[in-house]
């Protein structure tokens, strides 16, 4: 399932594509086919069209513990037929800061939010026997790459200076460690596109903080201050991009486009749409879209119909605002970087891309 050291780093992931497709590292707290897993499928399909060059997927604890996320990522790439081209790299299991003892104190003293704690909601797996298999089983032959996620990020950026975009769709622990240990790569990173933060809206995990940035606020603070081109896709916009039953049915129920991906999509995302809750007869029921907006924005920045340039920071102090993001329009504190904040999306065009990529034939044929 998650055996170490089985992959060949050089042959699978570090060779430049013959075309000019953007080079990407997906840094993810991976899951089978929720938002992270959906992005993995979309990335593989875009690579099959020669529109992107996914160098690899680096996994970090967040939505799930690292070991579970790695198992899901391995199966995901094997399932779609991308395992020989897109390798999985094992990253950080724990945040730089924000241990569970501190989280417990904060939640007790400052209650609120949706209660979602990601990995902290479940016991940490200590062996493969503790892992939960994806609905169609664990990966049967795909193994993790021998290189660590941090080393892979560093080596990829050095091999392709000013060409690598990092899609940061989980906690930022891997990226912070890579740039702290090897600061020389900072000016070589082309850009970072985040799904994270809540700038002018309430948080989700807590009343003030969005989950990805709440999980490891120290890592976020360090990376946000780096002189790199950065784009933030926060809850401000994800709250407004919602999948309704019409979009859901386009993915799950098109009789001419049934694959293992659409079947798993229905199984894992059917709550509220397919008779699994009591909401299924409510035409107003919707679910938010998160991480997949990052890859859509990378491929077509004009999908962002409203953006703002601000200096962004995150609170790292114990208390009600731990993990809270702030976007300064002027007079920022010393050390902050000005970056693009996406505030609105062309939802119709996004969902056309989303549906298309999730319903394409599987397995993919990668170059």
Quick overview of this protein structure:
This protein has 367 residues and is α/β, with parallel strands linked by helices.
Q: Which characteristics define this entry?
A:
367 residues, globular, Inosine-uridine Nucleoside N-ribohydrolase, Chain A
Describe this structure in words.
The protein is α/β, with parallel strands linked by helices and 367 residues long. The chain has a single domain, classed as Inosine-uridine Nucleoside N-ribohydrolase, Chain A. The protein contains 13 helices and 11 strands. The chain has helices at residues 9-13, 35-48, 66-80, 100-109, 149-159, 173-181, 211-215, 217-224, 235-238, 245-252, 260-269, 292-299, 347-358, and strands at residues 23-28, 53-59, 88-90, 164-168, 191-195, 230-233, 242-243, 287-288, 304-314, 325-328, 338-345. It has a 9-stranded mixed beta sheet, sandwiched between helices. Strand 2 (53-59), helix 3 and strand 3 (88-90) form a beta-alpha-beta unit. The longest helix has 15 residues, at 66-80. The radius of gyration is 19 Å and the shape is globular.
């Amino acid at each position: 399932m998650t055996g170490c050291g089985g992959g060949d780093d050089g042959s699978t992931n570090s060779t430049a594509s013959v075309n000019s497709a953007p080079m990407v590292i997906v840094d993810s707290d991976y899951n089978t086919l929720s938002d992270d897993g959906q992005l993995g499928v979309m990335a593989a399909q875009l690579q099959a069209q020669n529109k992107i060059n996914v160098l690899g997927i680096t996994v970090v604890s967040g939505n799930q513990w690292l070991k579970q996320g790695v198992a899901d990522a391995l199966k995901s790439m094997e399932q779609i037929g991308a395992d020989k081209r897109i390798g999985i790299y094992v990253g950080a299991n724990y945040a730089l800061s924000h241990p569970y003892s501190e989280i417990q104190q904060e939640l007790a003293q400052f209650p609120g939010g949706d209660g979602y704690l990601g990995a902290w909601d479940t016991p940490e797996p200590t062996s493969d026997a503790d892992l939960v298999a994806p609905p169609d089983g664990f990966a049967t032959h795909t193994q993790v790459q021998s290189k660590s996620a941090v080393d892979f990020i560093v080596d990829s950026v050095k091999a392709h200076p000013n060409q690598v975009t990092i899609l940061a769709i989980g906690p930022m622990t891997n990226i912070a460690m890579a740039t702290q240990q090897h600061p020389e790569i900072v000016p070589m990173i082309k850009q970072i596109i985040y799904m994270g933060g809540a700038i002018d809206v309430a948080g989700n995990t807590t009343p003030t903080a969005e989950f990805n940035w709440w999980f490891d606020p120290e890592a976020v603070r360090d990376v946000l201050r780096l002189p790199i081109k950065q784009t933030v896709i926060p809850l401000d916009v994800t709250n407004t991009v919602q999948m309704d039953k019409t979009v859901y049915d386009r993915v799950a129920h098109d009789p001419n486009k049934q694959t293992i991906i659409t079947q798993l999509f229905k199984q894992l995302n059917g709550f509220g749409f397919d008779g699994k809750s009591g909401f299924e007869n409510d035409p107003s029921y919707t679910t938010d879209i998160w991480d997949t907006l990052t890859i859509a924005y990378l491929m077509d920045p004009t999908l962002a119909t409203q953006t703002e340039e601000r200096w962004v920071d995150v609170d790292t102090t114990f208390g009600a605002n731990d993990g809270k993001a702030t976007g300064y329009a002027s007079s920022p504190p010393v050390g902050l970087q000005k970056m693009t904040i996406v505030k609105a999306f062309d939802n119709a065009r996004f969902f056309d891309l989303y549906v298309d990529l999730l319903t394409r034939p599987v397995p993919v044929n990668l170059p």
